[in-house]
# Entry
Amino acid sequence: MDIDGHIDSWPLELNEIQKEIAKEGNRTGADAWDKEAEVIGFHVTEYLLYRDGQSRSVKDLTPEELNYLVAATDALVWDCV
# Structure
């Protein structure tokens, strides 16, 4: 897959993203990077940070959302180096 398709996939698959977030355990960037493009990339980080177009405080993120945000962001770094 080319880099653009891996980091800039649209539309998001919100149901699949919610399933990934709900999974137990800590994820790494490697775990996230290995996922289908529709559940990673910068649109996922946007969704987690701005949900419905409004900024969210980090304290409003669940531990699972925060873990997925960190893993998805780490995967973005992997794509860009």
In short: DSSP finds five helices and no strands in the chain. The two ends are 15 Å apart (CA to CA).
